[in-house]
Structure formats: C-alpha cells, structure tokens
Design a protein that fits this description.
Length: 276
C-alpha cells in the first residue's frame, strides 16, 4: 500500500515552508487529469518545476518518456528519493530554477520538451516570460496559477484582464485553462482557488519579427493602462503627437485605442513601422 503524504513527511521530519510556496497536491485523480489535459504522452520529455513531495512527478513519470524536475528545497531530498524510488526515468536537480541558465536547462532535457509546474505564485510570471522569450525547444507549458491569473493569461484583446503578459503569450502561441483546482485540494490549504493554464507554443507563429522591439512596444503600450495608446507612445518614445499618430496610421491602428485593445499581430505590425 502507498504511504500517505502525511506519513512520508512525518518520517523525514519535513516542515512546510511558506517562503517557497509549499502547498502540495495529493489527489491522484486530479493529478492524472492535469497530466492528461497537459497532453503528456510516452513520447514526451517533461520539465517539472517545483517537485515538492513528488506526487505530480510520479504521475508524470508514469506517463512521460523522461522527467527532469527542479526543486529548490534540499530538505525534500530524502522525501523525493523515497516517493520516486521506482521511477527510473526521473532526474531531480536540487537548484533554484531561476538561477539556471536556459542553455544549461535545455541541455539537460536534450529534446523538445513540455513544462509542467505547480509553482509558487510569486515566480509564475518570471518563469513564463523566461520560457516564452528564451526557451528554444519548449512545446507547451502547463502551469498552476491563481484563478485570477488564469483569467489574465487566457484573456482576449479588449477584456479588462488582458495585459502585457497575455500579449507575450499570444506572440508565441495561445493559452487555455485545462483544469480548475479548488483550494481544498492543497495541503496546507492556501486562501485562493487555482487553475492550470496550458500555453501551446506554435513554432514560428510570427516570422521575420524583432521580438525585443515588439516587447518594447507592448511594455510602453501598457505603461499606463488608462491612457490611450497614442499618449503612451508619445511618452515612451518621446515623440510629438503628429509622429505617434502617423505610426498608428501606418500600422492601420485606430487613434483612439488603448493598449489592451490590440492583438499580438497588431503589436507585430506596430513594431515594424516604429523607427525610433
Ligand atoms: N509539485 C508539488 C505538488 O504539486 O504537490 C509541489 C508544488 S509547491 C506549490 C511548489 C514547489 O516549488 C515547492 O516544493 C517549492 O519548494 C518549490 N520551489 C519554490 N521555488 C522554487 C524555485 N525557485 N526553483 C525550484 N523549485 C522551487
């Protein structure tokens, strides 16, 4: 019979650390649903970020070809060794994933890969942006986030939740919610509900694009959400109104829009006519 999470954690004298966002999942039905909806198959290499006590890692191991997991907390070493004792396709790296260079991380995976992660909420945005901007072999990211963040990541242009990160996702692919996870599913229970968002990366969604330039425009467009785009362009690029309006006209964008009204392809068009 499998030992319960509580028994295993007690055996190794493990105490949950709030600073590392340690809220663990145990329900194997939920974990299997997440892995299935993430689209993980026996042909896939998976990068798991934040393995915790290894419950998700174990389900990933059963369903994937290979799993490379990152875990910052060295105190989880004996726990993971025990829980994953029969998982021979798993390699755990005890390191802060934010400190790992993308090239080193990708060389460990040595293949196209999927990211699956139940992360502490404070590192969600840096992780997503890092893989969107620098990941060269990432196929998808299925990431547990707070319900409100899930709505932001999957928003459409014009929605109030739509933001710079939504555009960042749409420049590389698209996002959808693949599981709703109520707070009661975690130990210890957090004070918010969560959802798993899957970001599918489309290879060469936009070709012939200077992504740094697009990201600059997006940052400037959202620098003051309440202002119209023309005003944000004037402030951000130090342009006279006539020049900012000319840019919008050239990109075929209305003079009265706000940053949140534009799609990723609108931003790509804008970046191509900005020459400052
Ligand atoms: N995957 C497990 C689960 O679903 O039960 C644990 C999820 S828990 C929300 C997040 C895990 O990420 C914790 O085990 C924590 O120690 C780890 N973690 C936090 N910051 C990290 C970082 N920068 N790099 C790697 N792991 C990190």
């Amino acid at each position: 019979m499998e030992k319960s999470l509580k028994t295993i954690l007690q055996t190794y004298g493990f105490n949950f650390k709030k600073a590392y966002g340690q809220n663990f999942l145990t329900d194997t039905t939920l974990l299997s649903e997440i892995v299935k909806n993430a689209g993980v198959t026996k042909d896939d290499v998976v990068l798991e970020i934040g393995c915790g006590a290894g419950a998700l890692t174990k389900v990933l191991s059963k369903n994937a070809k290979k799993v490379v997991g990152y875990e910052i907390d060295q105190k989880l070493k004996p726990v993971l060794r025990d829980v994953l004792s029969d998982c021979d396709n798993v390699e755990i790296v005890f390191n802060d994933v934010l400190k790992e260079k993308m090239s080193e991380l990708e060389s460990k995976l040595n293949d196209d890969y999927m990211v699956v992660a139940n992360l502490p909420y404070y590192i969600t945005t840096p992780i997503i942006m890092n893989f969107l901007e620098k990941g060269s072999r990432v196929k998808s990211m299925s990431i547990m986030v707070q319900k409100e963040v899930a709505e932001r990541l999957t928003a459409k242009a014009g929605d109030s939740e739509y933001g710079a990160i939504t555009v960042g996702i749409n420049l590389r692919g698209s996002a959808k919610i693949i599981a709703d996870v109520p707070r009661e599913m975690f130990t210890p229970m957090p004070n918010v509900d969560s959802a798993v968002v899957k970001i599918d990366i489309e290879k060469n969604k936009f070709s012939d694009v200077d992504f740094k330039k697009v990201r600059d425009v997006v940052r400037i467009a959202f620098s003051s959400r309440r202002k119209m785009l023309v005003n944000n362009l004037m402030n951000g690029y130090k342009l006279p109104r006539a020049k900012a309006e000319e840019i919008l006209n050239m990109a075929n964008v209305s003079l009265t829009v706000r940053g949140e009204d534009l799609t990723a392809s609108d931003y790509v068009r804008l970046s191509k006519v900005i020459n400052v």
